[in-house]
Amino acid sequence: MDLRLHDRVAIVTGASRGIGRAIARALADEGMRVVLAARSRDLLDEVAAALPTPSLVHAADLREPEAPAALVEAAVARFGRLDLLVNNAGATRRGDFLAMADDKWADGFALKFFGAMRCCRAAWPHLVASGGAIVNIVGVGGRTGSAEFAIGGAVNAALLNLTKALADRGVRDGVRVNAVNPGSIATERLHTRIATLAEGRGIDPAAAADEMARGLKVARFGEPAEIASVVAFLASPQAGYLQGAVIDVDGGQTRTL
Fold this sequence. Notes:
Blueprint: E1 9-13, H1 18-29, E2 33-38, H2 41-49, E3 55-59, H3 67-79, E4 84-87, H4 102-130, E5 133-137, H5 150-173, E6 176-182, H6 188-201, H7 205-216, H8 224-235, E7 246-249
Parallel strand pairs: 1-2, 1-4, 2-3, 4-5, 5-6, 6-7
Helix pairs in contact: 1-8, 3-4, 4-5, 6-7
């Protein structure tokens, strides 16, 4: 299917690995020019070298208050327009709520929520001009609370609410804003959790992965490319009547409404 994204311009944060890397590739495969943002320039250079379309590497720490605006400015200076913002950057700590000090909470919100909010604010005028879109990569923990994921769940819930608020504004301004909730996706972070479980239980990683999947009541873990394909669809005119949608791509892990 031709998603009619050729020559449009996208910013993808957290693009150096995992889901962000897969999103950048999927968008470039559709003909988009991609601005790749993350902290590691070396990894971003690797991603850029593999893309079939022109790209811009922008290494920055989006936790810094001025960094999101500088990212958007660099994208527009290089390509002259902006059609899509994908807020993918940000990971939060798991652990015992009582053991999580204030600095862990502040760090959890700094990148995934405040970084995304500031990127949206900086990108908004350009997306209004292009009739563009925002896709927030959030997570199923924003829908269903978990004792070991208090920070991540709170951050994700806040970002889902921001998605809805910006979608409301977007009806007036002509900007589509939607969110994707990945479930357990086979990234480095998940492999680390599997390895930790395997070591703690004295079992091999394959058995630990099967045990973890059974615990989540899913048939398997997802692949980054499966998230990326949904993002490409949401970015396209094919999704023109989706506004404020929250799409769970989680193999059925989320069972709440």
